[in-house]
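Supplementary Methods S3. Complex input for the erythose-4-phosphate-bound model.
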Amino acid sequence: MEIFIDSANITEIEKWLKMGVIDGVTTNPSIMFKDGVYDAEAGAREISALVNPRPLSVEVTTNDLDEMLTQAQTFASWGSNIVVKIPQITQDGIPCYGVIRRLQSEEIKVNATAALSLGQVMLAAKAGATYISIFAGRVADEGGNAPEVISNSVDWLEHWKFKSKIIVGSIRSVGDVLSAAMTGAHIITIPPQFLDKMADHKYSRDTVRQFVDDAKKALEMMEKARGT
Ligand code: E4P
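Predicted complex, serialized as structure tokens:
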């Protein structure tokens, strides 16, 4: 299973990259805005160069299918590792699978984003998406069963030998991460604050504190015995 970081914050991306725990980066226009990346091209180019050859997902910002295609082609030219996020449908419900198919034929990798159902996953896989992002938190917002959608999607892709990989996003807690991992997600994209929470544990801190304290005491005893 791979872990991506769901962020446009360079400091956080660099921090987790150096620790060797992230395999890629996902963004969307809201994440870029929240992280103060107002110039999408400059931000994407900087992240792309930092994480290359790991993938960086950058999302189109239009509902017009022709413009979506042009944006995607432009974004892909910003870095060899850029994956373009195309939504399943526009805000008016028009399917975007034709754009995905066209980009796939041009060898531009697509992350078919904002998937909330198995039906959408099936269509995105058929259209040739490299990645399909299931938004676990948003599935749950509507009373849906995110683990079931994830597990059915992974089973269906594997049964029919599709190459598309499921990215689970819209993570709202460490519990969401663990649940997605145990449900068979190929990739989970995690906001930095939950990576910090995953690493931390009160009893691990207490355990390390005990070892450090006892090592100090042992050193004191040794120095006392030597008369130093
Ligand atoms: C990741 O690819 C998604 O864009 C992101 O996780 C969405 O999260 P949200 O539902 O909290 O906006």
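The beta strands are 2-6, 24-26, 56-59, 82-87, 110-115, 131-135, 165-169, 187-190. The chain has a mean pLDDT of 98.
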